[in-house]
Amino acid sequence: MKLVLAEKPSVAQSIAKVLGANKREDGYLEGGGYVVSWCVGHLVELAEPESYDEKFGKWSYNDLPIFPTDWKYNVSSSTKKQFGILKQLMARSDIDSLVCATDAGREGELIFRLVYHKAGCRKPFERLWISSMEDVAIKEGFENLRSGTEYDALYEAALCRERADWIVGINATRLFSTLYGQTLNVGRVMTPIRDSEVLMAKEKNSIGTCPICGSAVEDKAKAFFCSNRNCKFALWKNNRYFESIGKNMNASTAQKLLTAGKVKLKGCKSKKTGKSFDVIVYMEVSDDGKTNFSMEFENGGKHK
Q: Rounded CA gap, 154 and 274, in Å?
């Protein structure tokens, strides 16, 4: 009899239906010469730092870096029952071999191998490698099972990735948290994603390039500020110069000023005379971040 180990209960049920394992038991299905069970995700996980030394229970800069020489694994507290069921199934005398039916990929391979080793199993196993859960694909997959040893390199790659993530995540998180006095989660995947989110947010709010330092100019509540905190450039939205001609410093106007150093405005209105006119407004920026504006009327006259 073969023990088939899937990654999720739903996948196990699909496989069991094809194999004829219709008898439902606690944590597995049986029938047709097969026992089909599941892992419920990561049953076995890397141990926390304090499992290696009690002193790591308290975060300290002086204890870094933490590099385990003999890696330890624990069974997740929320899945202990299912792991116990799998361990018993692997030890059954009528189970001759296993089939790794976890997801066809690096993580799926890791999930199966960790459970297999943690349970102390030494029985031979084969690999089901399919990308479809249709009945035909499952049947064909079981007719062409591969030797489990063919995927040893895939398992080793997954193991390296998992342990590298642990080393980076544990050490970097504790380093920055102790340096800055607050919990700062850092990780191989988490940090680049958050960095990308910040950059995307800045790009979304950016309206142009700062004429002083070249950084992005962002649309904020009261003004269009340079994103470089050391730069003093700003285009204030309640700009008196523009208000004097009946116009506002909106995003479109600011973008044109940043791109070309000028903007053509139609339908301006003088507060003194009430007359309407069209002008081109020019912007000059000094090194200290101050902006000066001047305008040119359609007839060629220029006014500051």
A: 78
Q: What angle do CA 25, 29, 32 make, to 5 degrees?
A: 125
Asked if 61 and 175 count as a contact pair (C-beta separation under 8 A), the reply is yes
Beta-carbon contacts of 143 under 8 Å, excluding residues fewer than 6 positions away, are: none
> Which DSSP letter does residue 145 get?
P
Alpha carbon distance 121, 154 (integer Å): 19
Q: Give me 171's structure tokens.
A: 């050490």
Closest CA to 44 of 141, 113, 120: 113
Q: Are 36 and 28 within 8 A, CB to CB? A: yes
The tens digit of pLDDT for each residue in 164-217 reads 999 999 999 999 899 988 888 887 665 555 555 555 555 567 888 888 888 888
State the CB neighbour count (10 A cutoff) for residue 130.
17
Partner residues linked to 25 by β-bridges: 28
d(Cα 297, Cα 106) in Å, to the nearest integer?
68
**Helix (H) / strand (E) containing 116:** helix 106-118
**Residue recorded with tokens 């500051």:** 304
Closest CA to 18 of 149, 163, 138: 138
**Which residues 6+ apart lie within 8 Å of 301 measured at CB?**
none
Which tokens is 181 given? 């006095």
Task: State both tokens at 223.
Answer: 């003004």
Q: How is residue 204 written in tokens?
A: 């979304």
- Encoded tokens for 111: 């999930």
The arithmetic mean of pLDDT across residues 61-74, rounded, is: 95
Q: Could you count the other beta carbons within 10 Å of the beta carbon of residue 229?
A: 8
Sorted by sequence, the CB contacts under 8 Å of residue 130 that are 6+ apart come out as: 104, 137, 138, 140, 141
